Write the structure tokens for this entry.
Amino acid sequence: MKKVTLLCVVALGTIALASASNVNAAQVGGSQTTDGIIKMKPGGDTDILPKDPGKEDDTKIDPKDYPDPVPLPGDPDANHVVKEGDLAFTKNPKVFNFGTQDVSAKIQAQKTYTAKALNQDIDAAKTPFSGGIQTLQVYDGRPAGSNLDNWQVAVKATTFTDATSKKTLDGATIHIKGAGTYTRDKAADLTVAPNLDIVTDNITTSTVFGVAQGKQAKEHSDLTWKAEDVELEMAGSQAKVGTFESVVTWTLTDAAYK
């Protein structure tokens, strides 16, 4: 079984199809990554310590400052170039940015703590833009009906860690909600995991979507969601001050979804 691995901070992409006359070996699978980040600071109980009016600590993006890039979210991205016969990623999210969140003793006493991602992603130049539509896109150009139809995408993530203090957010899980699919192959039959949950422990690997044995999904297949529909959940006791980062790795292999 061949595999290709992508590293994402959570990203987008455009495809250029090379000529079939290219004699180089076709790509089969791969990996991409997405960066996860959350900043946590003292505070959060507004009954005791309300924020000053007009003061905002979250790293939110003003659309006027960062217009949507070209290509638009959902379009192929020039930094993912593939050949006609490849099985490869052509788009992936670049970042899951959970902004700056308050932490207090009251929050730490909660059973669970949840932070929603900001409504943004970053383009190829790492410039943030709002209204992020995040897409995990697979291109399968291998000939149909020749035992070359299988593929699946799996995901694994490192533990959220503060680089300075080495503190970690143990047990934190990224939830992707409201994801939908789009295919160009009229005969496509995709299978998507019932729950898109990414356990950030650097151990757990989860299957995201793909093609079951005997099915196919040629050309481009998308798994798409709104950036703001991504959540980070952990036990309240894990909430602590610091800047925590995780690397989410998406891996595409030529194996049937199971």
